[in-house]
Amino acid sequence: MRVAVARPLLKTFLYEAPTEDVPLQPGQRLLVPFGSGKVLGFFLGWEERPMGAALKPIEAILEDIPALTEEVYALVRFAAKHYRAPLGEALKAALPPGLNVAKPMPTKKARVMKRKPWQAPSVGEISPRPEQLSEEQTEVLQGLTEGLKLGSYRAFLLHGTTGSGKTEVYLRLVEKALEGGLGALVLVPEIALTPQLSGRFWARFGDRVALLHSGMGDGERRFQFQALREGRAVVALGVRSAIFAPVQNLKVLIVDEEHDTSFKQEEGLRYNARDLALVRGRQAKALVLLGSATPSLESLYNIEAGKMRLLQMRQRIHNRPLPEIQLVDLRASLLPPEKPEAAILPQEVLPHGEKPEEDAPEVSLLTPALREALEEVLLGGQQAILFLNRRGYNRMWLCSGCGKTRKCRRCDICMTYHSKAQKLQCHYCGLNQALPEVCEECGGRFLKLGFGTERIEEELVGAFPGARIARLDRDTATSAGKLGGLLERFSKGELDILVGTQMLTKGHDFHGVTLVCMLLADIGLSLPDFRAAERVFHLLTQVAGRAGRGERPGKVLLQTYHPEAEPIAYILKKDFEGFAHMEMKRRRMLAWPPCSRVALIRIEGGEPGLAERFSRQLAHVASEALCRTSSNVRVLGPAAAPIAKVSNKYRWQLFLKAPSYAALDIPLAAVEQAVVNLPKSIKVVIDVDPTTML
């Protein structure tokens, strides 16, 4: 019998079949001997024993029925092949905690006894099911319903502006599926950050919904998974890993905020759940709906190629206007009129309580325009959201003597000052350090530069002492309970101003918010990534969409040092189509995705020079393989990664750029074969369809 073991090995192994006639199905979990121990394995199929071969017998069959359905098993096999991952590890990744280990399946009685009843999150008042839909919602739902009735694979892209009612369309489409006895799967970027959505699904469908995300306990996640496997739940709502949920009779797949990069898994099986939704939909002959206010260029490219049908909702519910967007040029707002050359860098209080020089005045992102707008909001009893995609207090410590920055000793990244903890922290490896007295290189004083959400919160409290202010970032939302509590308070109007990071963009619907400010819209524009402009446009548009979703019109302040930057210029014009056309033209000219296919190969080593040496070796292997074919594949690099060191690992990388996935197969196969002979101290990661270049 052929078995895939849950180990990082591309090959599979033969084991001796059980002596008794035991029916096994592909994907069934086994306990098998491997090396000096026993590991989790998966049955793949029957094979004859090779002549004279001595095979080890399996130790145990861990389940009577495979935890993964036949449909999911086929999807995992596709994902393992496409993303160049070991099949055993891919099958393990598709299972919830408790089933991804070499232990027998808990009995049904035991599963009920571990289990704690799941409670729908409390997020304030949940809007009831509207009696009537808008004209655009009705038209879109009619097209989707007709596609569902056909009973074959259909893919749609719903481009709906923020506040246009996409979620209600999702709910109605799931209703249609359940009325016909069909199953549904709904993927969202981070469900722990959008308890409102899970609350709406629970209010509409009750315990027919199974929730799947990492914020739940292991036992509850396994219970929800089994509820789907046994047909007690028919709707799966979850994050990217829910793409492998065993939904029975699946005929509707929905991917909300399909542009979001968190659908890409960055460890192990490096799949993109949005892309796998299209594959699973085709395999299941189901309807797939991707939705976003800012669709990805990949989806727009599929529209051009005729692989998907475009649906649009351009108006907000009740014809509410989109918020007015006002530009705040930080170059003018933050410079003192007397000495404009003096405030090139924002400076903070220096160590030992010393103040900066008079010719280097302290500056703030709370610009006069923002302060005036906040005063109006507070006087009117409304709410405001301030967005800054940087947590902590200061983003950089720079020596005033030698100019060197304080970097993490394990990573090639500046450490962030956290005022409450009085420590410097690396946001990559988590290392904490005490505050340095003076520079170790020259004895100079440190300047605190840059802004983080913690500093903004402090400045807000000082500027508006009577306001109710809170901060939402990874430092404050340390658990699902704390997150839900904070969002509920804001939803109920118990808070006036909420300042936070990207967590604020995840589909929240607060009707009291009339002001949104992007405190520093430039963040991300200069990253060495061909998707940088697209990512900034998506992020800022989503943030702006939080304003004016209630009865009162909204206003957006967009603060930037680069008002001429293309993403910002198109946001000011509210012209998504113009931006997408411009960006797609650039991608075609430079042959970057979605107009090409890319694989990233990253090499990591613990000693300086090792990663560079072996990256050059693998680049040579790929080039040699291409010389023997006529494939139009380019090898870019190798070069040091933009973040050249993380957790004491030096990082180099190279790219393979090709016109098709098939063209990548020969060079990637050659690289995989060469990796087997590399020292164990070298780690090689192959990432097909990477979403980040860092």
Give an overview of the whole structure.
- The protein is an alpha/beta fold.
- A seven-stranded parallel beta sheet has the order 8-9-7-10-11-6-12, sandwiched between helices.
- A hairpin with a 4-residue loop joins strand 16 (416-418) and strand 17.
- The chain is globular and about 85 Å long.
Which terms would index this structure?
single chain; 694 residues; alpha/beta; seven-stranded parallel β-sheet; 30% helix; 21% strand
Task: Please state how the strands of the largest beta sheet are arranged side by side.
Answer: 8-9-7-10-11-6-12
Strand content: 15-25%
Class computed from helices, strands and strand pairing? alpha/beta
Share in helix: 25-40%
Shape: globular
Describe the biggest sheet?
A: 7 strands, parallel
Cα gyration radius (Å): 27 Å
SSE arrangement:
Elements: E1 2-5, E2 13-14, E3 29-34, E4 37-45, E5 60-61, H1 70-82, H2 87-93, H3 108-114, H4 135-149, E6 154-160, H5 166-179, E7 183-187, H6 195-205, E8 209-212, H7 218-229, E9 235-238, E10 250-256, H8 273-284, E11 287-292, H9 297-304, E12 309-313, E13 324-329, H10 330-333, H11 368-379, E14 383-387, E15 396-399, E16 416-418, E17 423-425, E18 432-434, E19 446-449, H12 453-463, E20 469-472, H13 480-491, E21 497-500, E22 513-518, H14 532-544, E23 555-560, H15 566-572, H16 576-590, E24 597-605, H17 610-627, E25 634-646, E26 649-658, H18 661-675, E27 682-688
Parallel strand pairs: 6-11, 6-12, 7-9, 7-10, 8-9, 10-11, 13-23, 14-21, 14-22, 20-21, 22-23
Antiparallel strand pairs: 1-2, 1-4, 3-4, 3-5, 15-19, 16-17, 17-18, 24-26, 24-27, 25-26
